[in-house]
């Protein structure tokens, strides 16, 4: 578009100088202003998309294969098993990490509603809650009377 505008301006101005035209008939014509592309940061993901070219499909998922297709649901579980086996800790399931995160969150003082929201549960109930022992750091806190707890919170 820029080149068209420059060529038209040059030709009409030459015609006016040579006396072929009295004024520029295109002065009332509105051409769209040239748009320059916005600079883009080339992240690793954007480079992968460009490399995939026509094969890339935007699935809307965060974690995808190299061509944008969603990962198979069992991929992360299988990959996690392989990483655990290669690194040598005792066998642990990927789902066990979810339970561990919930327990640690609750142990730091978060209420059950916060843990529920974190896990996406509909009810603020911990499975197997009956018979569950409190976390050792919280057991002493649970034995304190409300008066002791209030006094500690007011102490400097």
UniProtKB/TrEMBL annotation:
Kindly indicate whether the keyword Coiled coil belongs to this entry: no
Cite the residue spans of the region called Disordered.
124-156
Assigned keywords, A-Z: DNA recombination
| Residues in Tyr recombinase domain copies | 1-144
Basic and acidic residues bias (residue ranges): 134-146
Q: What is this protein called?
A: Tyrosine-type recombinase/integrase
Q: Which organism is it from?
A: Phytohabitans maris
């Amino acid at each position: 578009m820029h080149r068209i505008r420059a060529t038209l301006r040059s030709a009409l101005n030459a015609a006016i100088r040579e006396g072929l035209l009295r004024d520029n008939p295109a002065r009332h014509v509105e051409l769209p202003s040239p748009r320059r592309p916005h600079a883009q940061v080339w992240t690793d993901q954007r480079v992968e998309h460009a490399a995939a070219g026509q094969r890339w499909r935007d699935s809307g998922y965060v974690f995808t294969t190299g061509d944008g297709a969603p990962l198979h649901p069992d991929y992360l579980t299988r990959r996690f098993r392989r990483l655990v086996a290669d690194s040598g800790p005792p066998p642990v399931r990927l789902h066990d990490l979810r339970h561990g995160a919930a327990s640690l969150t609750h142990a730091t003082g978060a209420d059950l509603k916060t843990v529920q929201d974190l896990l996406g549960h509909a009810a603020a109930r911990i499975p197997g809650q009956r018979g569950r022992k409190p976390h050792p750091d919280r057991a002493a806190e649970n034995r304190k009377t409300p008066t002791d707890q209030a006094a500690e919170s007011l102490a400097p």
